[in-house]
Amino acid sequence: GENVEQHPSTLSVQEGDSAVIKCTYSDSASNYFPWYKQELGKGPQLIIDIRSNVGEKKDQRIAVTLNKTAKHFSLHITETQPEDSAVYFCAAPHSGNTPLVFGKGTRLSVIA
Amino acid sequence: EPEVTQTPSHQVTQMGQEVILRCVPISNHLYFYWYRQILGQKVEFLVSFYNNEISEKSEIFDDQFSVERPDGSNFTLKIRSTKLEDSAMYFCASSYGTGYEKLFFGSGTQLSVL
After folding, report:
1. SS3 category, B6
2. Sheet with A62-67: strands ordered across
3. Can you tell me the distance from the alpha carbon of B19 to that of B10, in angstroms, rounded to the nearest whole number?
């Protein structure tokens, strides 16, 4: 089955700097890789996702890159702001068309 | 913007009691899920539901758990006889198509078993 590893577990950056969070997955058949943001007291919210037929996707200040050969994908946040502070989770399907397996999460703190 | 709603936000129960957690998925979504998150840990899959039946479940989802879609809008998770280790935040989620893409999560029910 799918195993998703996420690093780092905590990350502190100065406001305006970039943040990068990395994940690896084990199932080479996985073809969909979302990132979720969880703010305090709320459920995870999808912020960006990527399919395996592209290597990079951008949405304003956030981007996700995918390396299928190495089986890893990363979240990049540029020009970080205090409201980016949250826990971020990567995920991948368990196998084929089955539910998501989440990483352990990264607590991002953006220091003003 | 449509959202998944969950009630109650907090539930306290005694060990051995039955609890029902309620969810109203987004109205045109077809796939429904329950996940749980023990404090400080990752989000874990419990069960998925499609076309009025369970499509997949994890090893966590044992005989003490059951799900139901009693009407056209609600989706419930029942824990028959709660244990201390069932204490967690339970998230309901729904998606429109393909079963795992673009999940929308509710804000969760914090279950505390005493």
Report:
1. strand
2. A4-7, A19-25, A72-77, A62-67, A56-59
3. 12
* C-alpha distance from A19 to closest chain B C-alpha (Å): 20
How many angstroms separate the CA of residue B99 from the nearest CA in chain A? 6
Partner B contacted by A95 (CB < 8 A): no
**Euclidean distance between CA atoms A49 and A35, whole angstroms:** 6
pLDDT band at A96 (very low <50, low <70, confident <90, very high): low
**What three-state secondary structure class fits B74?**
coil
pLDDT, tens digit, for every residue of B54-107?
988 999 999 999 999 988 889 999 999 999 999 999 999 999 876 567 899 999
* pLDDT beyond 60 at A109: yes
Q: What torsion, rounded to 10 degrees, do the Cα atoms A22, A11, A4, A37 define? A: -100
Whether A97 and chain B come into contact, CB under 8 Å, resolves to yes
Chain B residues inside the 8 Å CB shell of A41: 107
Q: Taking CB atoms and an 8 Å limit, are A32 and B56 in contact across chains?
A: no
